[in-house]
Each structure stands twice: as structure tokens, then as C-alpha cells.
């Protein structure tokens, strides 16, 4: 049974072998190129006229296949071939010699630009100086006319090629630096997102567990039924928190292209927060106003986490047993308000709850307000714009 050749292997082999085939053929072309002007000894008949320029062109074209991987080697072979052909052409036509000189060395000058763009200055600068010196020497050794003009043209061409190559190299380095900074910022943003998720998730659950554990410890001897209820609340809250932690860690371990099978918390899960608040001793009055349509997952998750953090703050800091949550969905905007009638007070500088809520709203292009109420208590208000796809 014949063995099938992998479809991608053959092009890779050809791309590696063909450049060296051109390098192997270059000495043969260099040998015959000096005779192309008269066609003597080549046996091309009437075809010798186009060969006058084709063979010298092949001298600098055959090593070009090495430019992507070995540009310095390609430049050296081109320079050597052009020098040998220009110095060994035996012709009385000065114009032909000038044509060959321009044809070959201008290609070499372009290659100088490629080398400058793809290699460090430590390697590119000596190569550029070597090419310039060789071209000037050949311009004066060649018996053709106008050696000064050709030398000046060599200087201008090489300086231009080196300048363009340096500019390309600088732009590549700048682009690489931008990509590196973007990658670093993406990593930092992802770390902040993970920290925010874990804070919002764990802080709420630990707050409920701490309150219920305190209640259970106080009434375990006098009111066993209430102590058992507190323990059940602690168990349920712990299980929910562990499930969310598993979901978060699982999302981090999955490849970016893999889709999550677990639903993302959203507006439909706000009732869970109401029940958790009640377990912690705070009655949460949840009101939904306006349209009842699905919103994007990122907006739904942001609302869920913001309400979760706000209710947690009421449980831990407000000193009240009630709070109100209003979710108002309009045609182009989703509003969320969490208000309590507790102790109030200024926004503290410690902790990450308020900061995390503000960051979530800022990432979605919304408006965030957190401040004590005029008559006491505390108010958290959020306005999130809805995309057109949701509001149509």
C-alpha cells in the first residue's frame, strides 16, 4: 500500500531546497554571463540578444531565495556575483558595461535595505559599508564611462536603502513594543477581573456565613431550632460559593476558544441574592420596572455582582434589616439602584467593593454613584447603556 505524503510537508521541503538550488546555479551563470554581450560560445543563435541582460540579471536574482532566512548570505553572493561579472565582461561598448553595472548593483542596493530592516545595526552597518566600498571600487575599475557618476549614484542608493531599512526596523521594534505592552495590560486587566470576581463572590458569602455563625453560636443552647437553621444557611451558602469558585477556576483553565457549559449569573439570578440577604437577616425588596428582555451576558453579570456587593455591604455595615433593590430596564439603558436606611456615612478608603463596582460600570461605559442619602442610609446607583441589538 503506498504511503500518503502529508499535504503540508512537500511545500516546506521545496521552500528549503529551492533557494540552495539557485545558489548552486549561480556560479554557472556567472561563468557564462561575461560572454552574453556578443553571444560567443553560448550556442543561443538569435537568442543571444535577450541573454545579454537576462544572464547578468540571473546572477543577482538566483541568491534572492535566501533573503527571508539568510539575508547576509544572499547579500554576499549577490555582491560577489555582480563584482565578478562587471569586472570580467569583455566588450568595447561602454554603455553596455554601464547598463550591467546599474542592473546588478541597484539590486544589491535594494538587498542592503532588506538586510538593514531585518538584522541588527551591529551586523547591518558593516555589510552596508562593505557594499559601498566594493561598488565605488568597481565603478572606477570598470572600463566604462562616468565612474564618478556611478560612484555618486552608489552612495545615494545605499544611503537611501539603509535609511529606509532602518526606518522599517524601527517601526517593527515599535510595533513589537506596543504588542508587548498590550499583552502586559491584558494580563493585568485579566488579573484585576479575576480578583474582582473572587472578591464579589467570596465577600458576600463570607459575610452571610459570619453572621449566621454568630447567630448560631448565641442561640445554640437556648434556641436549637434557630441554630440549626443558621447551620443550614451556612451549608447552603458554602455550597453555592464552592460551585461558583469551581466555575470560575474551570473557566480559567479552559482554552479561550472553549465555550462554558455553566450559565453566567445575570438578572434572573437576583432572586438568589434576595434569599441570601434574608438568610443573613436583611430583607431585600426587589422591584423590576420597565421592559423584561434579555440583556448581554456581560451586562447581566455586572448587575448581579454589583447588587451582590451592595447587599453584602448592607449586611455588614449598614446596621439595618431592610434594603430596596430597583432594576429598571428602558429601551436604551438599564438602571440599578440599591438603597438602605441604615447608618450611612461617607465612602471609606479601605476595601475593594466600591472600587470593583465602579470598575465594572466603567468597563461597560456606564455611570456609577455611591454616596450616603440626604436623610441617612446609603445609595448605590448604576446606569448601563444597552446595545442596539437588545433595544430593537
Can you offer a commentary on this structure?
- This protein is α+β, with helices and mostly antiparallel strands and 392 residues long.
- It has two domains: 9-181; 267-392, 2-Layer Sandwich (Heat Shock Protein 90), CATH 3.30.565.10.
- The protein is 64% helix and 10% strand.
- It is built from eleven helices and five strands; from the N terminus they run ααααααααβαββαββα.
- A five-stranded mixed sheet has the order 1-2-3-5-4, with helices on one face.
- Strand 2 and strand 3 form a beta hairpin.
- Helix 1 (9-32) runs parallel beside helix 3, helix 3 runs antiparallel to helix 4 and helix 5 runs antiparallel to helix 6.
- The radius of gyration is 38 Å and the shape is rod-shaped.
- The two termini are 61 Å apart.
- The relative contact order is 0.06.
- Mean pLDDT is 78; it is low at 256-261.
- Residues 298-388 form the Histidine kinase/HSP90-like ATPase domain.
- The chain crosses the membrane at residues 49-67, 72-89, 101-117, 124-145, 151-170.
- Keywords: ATP-binding, Kinase, Membrane, Nucleotide-binding, Phosphoprotein, Transferase, Transmembrane, Transmembrane helix, Two-component regulatory system.
- It catalyses: ATP + protein L-histidine = ADP + protein N-phospho-L-histidine.
- This is histidine kinase.
Amino acid at each position: 500500500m503506498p504511503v500518503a505524503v502529508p499535504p503540508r510537508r512537500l511545500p516546506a521541503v521545496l521552500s528549503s531546497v529551492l533557494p540552495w538550488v539557485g545558489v548552486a546555479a549561480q556560479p554557472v551563470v556567472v561563468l557564462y554571463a561575461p560572454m552574453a554581450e556578443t553571444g560567443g560560445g553560448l550556442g543561443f543563435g538569435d537568442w543571444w540578444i535577450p541573454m545579454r541582460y537576462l544572464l547578468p540579471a540571473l546572477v543577482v536574482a538566483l541568491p534572492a531565495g535566501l533573503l527571508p532566512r539568510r539575508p547576509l548570505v544572499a547579500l554576499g553572493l549577490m555582491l560577489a556575483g555582480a563584482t565578478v561579472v562587471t569586472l570580467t565582461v569583455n566588450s568595447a561598448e561602454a554603455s553596455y558595461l554601464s547598463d550591467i553595472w546599474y542592473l546588478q548593483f541597484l539590486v544589491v542596493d535594494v538587498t542592503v535595505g532588506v538586510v538593514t530592516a531585518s538584522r541588527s545595526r551591529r551586523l547591518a552597518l558593516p555589510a552596508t559599508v562593505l557594499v559601498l566600498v566594493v561598488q565605488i571600487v568597481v565603478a572606477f575599475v570598470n572600463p566604462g564611462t562616468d565612474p564618478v557618476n556611478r560612484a555618486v549614484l552608489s552612495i545615494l542608493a545605499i544611503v537611501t536603502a539603509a535609511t529606509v531599512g532602518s526606518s522599517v526596523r524601527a517601526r517593527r521594534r515599535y510595533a513589537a513594543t506596543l504588542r508587548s505592552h498590550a499583552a502586559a495590560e491584558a494580563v493585568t486587566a485579566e488579573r484585576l477581573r479575576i480578583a474582582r470576581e473572587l472578591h464579589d463572590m467570596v465577600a458576600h458569602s463570607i459575610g452571610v456565613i459570619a453572621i449566621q455563625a454568630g447567630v448560631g453560636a448565641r442561640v445554640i443552647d437556648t434556641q436549637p431550632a434557630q441554630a440549626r437553621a443558621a447551620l443550614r444557611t451556612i451549608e447552603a451558602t458554602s455550597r453555592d460559593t464552592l460551585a461558583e469558585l469551581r466555575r470560575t477556576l474551570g473557566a480559567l483553565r479552559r482554552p479561550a476558544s472553549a465555550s462554558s457549559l455553566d450559565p453566567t449569573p445575570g438578572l434572573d439570578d437576583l432572586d438568589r441574592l434576595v434569599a441570601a440577604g434574608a438568610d443573613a437577616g436583611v430583607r431585600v425588596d426587589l422591584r423590576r420596572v420597565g421592559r423584561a428582555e434579555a440583556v448581554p451576558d456581560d451586562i447581566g453579570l455586572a448587575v448581579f455582582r454589583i447588587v451582590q456587593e451592595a447587599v453584602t455591604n448592607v449586611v455588614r455595615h449598614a446596621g439595618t434589616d431592610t434594603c430596596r433593590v430597583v432594576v429598571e430596564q428602558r429601551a436604551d439603558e438599564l438602571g440599578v439602584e440599591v438603597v438602605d436606611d441604615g447608618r450611612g456615612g461617607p465612602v471609606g478608603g479601605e476595601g475593594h467593593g466600591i472600587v470593583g463596582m465602579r470598575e465594572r460600570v466603567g468597563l461597560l461605559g456606564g455611570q456609577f454613584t455611591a454616596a450616603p442619602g440626604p436623610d441617612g442610609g446609603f445609595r448605590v446607583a448604576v446606569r448601563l447603556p444597552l446595545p442596539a441589538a437588545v433595544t430593537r
